[in-house]
């Protein structure tokens, strides 16, 4: 069967300027950071990122590669607001589509189900509708006649996710306590790539965790990358927690142009292998 | 904090707990220190039926101290974010959020200060506030009651207030309810004919004029204004157990 193993750089080679990228994980949790770093090395521009945002959005803001961010929030969790994203917003350098967190999920699900929209009560009465003039309402065709928000599909060109384990065929396993919405990201995308902490033989997946942890099946992904530490500095339990010290160092670069240049040169221009060496020391 | 004498923070925590008294078997999501402490106090004392998470994805059968790590024995269920969304759309939830700004009808802003298009200060963003407020009961916590927080008009409506809910009509607004606003100065609700914010009680030691001076809109002041109940020594003891580090004591501005 189809062995889908590849490198992060081979996966990211498929990304071209102006694409819409979906990024899995949640805030500063199980983010496919090895892919994000590869996007920085490749230098693709004018990206739109669809994400429950964390440092993925912050980094691509700071490198100037992000044209537009579509998000339910952008947070580092232990630092409630992503500081590099904050800076981009306050400088007016980022086009933003800010959605309610649940509304964002409905947009992803609509894309995954190949629907134009999904209907919800979420957003009615709030200024989410004002800051997003593209959001429209629909009237229920049934007796109730209720007015609802039609959340448009968040269609994605390429999605990137990070799992704890996967096999070479593209079956992925999330061993943490929250699967987030990585499977929906894959289905909302034309193509999806998965990195993982470790590639294991298929028969070891079921012994490694409960059946429910097999979140990703091989229909969903076109490529599998073994990238130990691939979510660093975000958390990837049970393999590792968040590197809070590193995250603080990263966050501090929002206030110091020189510190950002040092961070960028040291951590983002190096290969993934050199990055892992640098953070291990 | 070993003294059994109640502080302002303790009064606030009890006032928060009271918001959840009649909720029954629903999930409480409390954002921030004092809301978390108050919700835990409710569960530990008069409302053990409430469902609560560890702030991540575990439903806990008992109220743990702030900052304590749950053990396997503390777990009664699983509530990953997907299930949180389903629960909030289902309506079996009461959330207490913070409010960077809140107006007289309970419109709340946590998104930004200034024009959203290019904010003077980017705050959290709307997060789940639009969905929470239109789907289930919401209360608010303001640790520093001042005219920049309780404002005539919020910069961006994140959580929906009563005037905007009413404008949607009875169908769309039927699940909207803002139960209470608890601040470091008093307790407020919206039980007025046009759902304007009303003073319910002043915390001990707070003067009415202090509240009026620190509110950026005209509050409804009823003929009778109560004093917010002070926790008994027994309840203060529970609060000390639930917040051994005294995080809430540091949060509440006196």
Account of the 3D structure:
The complex is a heterodimer of chains A (281) and B (254). Chain A is an alpha/beta fold and 281 residues long. Chain A is 32% helix and 23% strand. In chain A, the strands form 2 sheets. In chain A, strands 1, 2, 3, 4, 8, 9, 10 and 11 form an 8-stranded mixed beta sheet that branches. In chain A, helix 3 crosses helix 4. Chain B is an alpha/beta fold and 254 residues long. Chain B has a single domain, classed as Glutaconate Coenzyme A-transferase. Chain B contains 8 helices and 14 strands. Chain B is globular. Chain B starts with 7 loop residues before the first helix and ends with a helix. Chains A and B meet through strand 3, helix 4 and helix 5 of A and helix 3, strand 9, helix 4 and helix 5 of B.
Rounded radius of gyration of chain A (Å): 19 Å
Which shape of chain B, going by the Cα principal axes?
globular
For the record, the count of structural domains of chain A works out to: 2
Task: Tell me roughly what share of residues is in helical segments of chain A.
Answer: 25-40%
Give the rounded overall mean pLDDT of chain B: 97
- Unreliably modeled segments of chain A: none
The number of strands of chain A is 11
Q: What quaternary form is this?
A: heterodimer
Gross morphology of chain A: globular
Largest interface: A-B, 39 and 46 residues
The CATH superfamily label of chain B reads Glutaconate Coenzyme A-transferase
- Succession of helices and strands of chain A: HEHEHEHEHEHEEEEHEHEHHH
At the third CATH level, what is the topology name of the largest domain in chain A? Glutaconate Coenzyme A-transferase
């Amino acid at each position: 069967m189809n062995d889908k193993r590849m490198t992060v750089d081979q996966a990211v080679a498929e990304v071209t300027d102006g694409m819409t990228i979906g990024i899995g994980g949640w805030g500063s949790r199980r983010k496919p950071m090895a892919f994000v770093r590869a996007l920085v090395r490749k230098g693709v521009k004018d990206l739109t990122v669809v994400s429950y945002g964390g440092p993925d959005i912050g980094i691509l803001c700071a490198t100037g590669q992000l044209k537009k961010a579509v998000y339910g929030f952008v947070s580092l969790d232990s630092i409630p607001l992503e500081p590099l994203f904050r800076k981009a917003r306050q400088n007016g350098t980022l086009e933003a589509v800010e959605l309610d967190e649940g509304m964002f999920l409905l947009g992803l699900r609509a894309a995954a189900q190949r629907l134009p929209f999904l209907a919800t009560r979420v957003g009615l009465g709030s200024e989410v509708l004002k800051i997003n003039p593209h959001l429209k309402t629909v009237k229920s065709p049934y007796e109730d006649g209720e007015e609802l928000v039609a959340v448009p599909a968040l269609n994605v060109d390429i999605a990137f996710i990070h799992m704890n384990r996967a096999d070479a065929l593209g079956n992925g396993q999330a061993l943490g306590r929250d699967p987030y919405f990585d499977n929906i990201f894959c289905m909302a995308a034309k193509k999806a790539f998965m990195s993982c902490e470790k590639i294991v033989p298929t028969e070891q997946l079921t012994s490694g965790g409960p059946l429910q942890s097999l979140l990703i099946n091989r229909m969903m992904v076109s490529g599998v990358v073994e990238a130990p530490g691939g979510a660093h500095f975000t958390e990837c339990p049970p393999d590792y927690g968040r590197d809070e010290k590193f995250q603080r160092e990263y966050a501090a670069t929002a206030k110091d142009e020189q510190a950002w240049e040092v961070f960028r040169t040291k951590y983002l221009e190096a290969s993934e292998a050199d990055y892992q060496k640098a953070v291990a020391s | 904090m070993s003294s059994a004498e109640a502080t302002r923070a303790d009064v606030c925590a009890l006032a928060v707990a009271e918001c959840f008294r009649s909720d029954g078997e629903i999930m409480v999501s409390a954002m921030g220190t004092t809301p978390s402490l108050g919700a835990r106090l409710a569960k530990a004392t008069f409302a053990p039926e409430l469902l609560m998470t560890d702030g991540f994805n575990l439903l806990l059968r008992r109220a743990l101290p702030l900052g304590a790590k749950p053990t396997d024995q503390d777990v009664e269920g699983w509530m990953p974010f997907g299930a949180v969304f389903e629960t909030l759309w289902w309506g079996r939830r009461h959330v207490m959020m913070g409010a960077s700004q809140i107006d007289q009808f309970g419109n709340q802003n946590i998104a930004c200060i200034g024009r959203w298009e290019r904010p003077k200060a980017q705050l959290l963003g709307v997060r789940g506030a639009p969905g929470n407020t239109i789907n289930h009961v919401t209360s608010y916590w303001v640790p520093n009651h001042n005219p920049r927080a309780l404002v005539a008009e919020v910069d961006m409506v994140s959580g929906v207030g009563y005037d905007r809910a009413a404008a949607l009509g009875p169908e769309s607004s039927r699940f909207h309810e803002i139960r209470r606003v608890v601040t470091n100065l008093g307790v407020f609700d919206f039980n007025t004919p046009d759902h304007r914010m009303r003073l319910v009680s002043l915390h001990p030691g707070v003067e009415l004029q202090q509240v009026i001076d620190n509110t950026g809109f005209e509050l409804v002041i009823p003929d009778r204004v109560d004093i917010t109940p002070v926790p008994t020594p027994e309840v203060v003891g529970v609060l000390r157990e639930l917040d051994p580090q005294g995080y809430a004591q540091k949060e509440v501005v006196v």
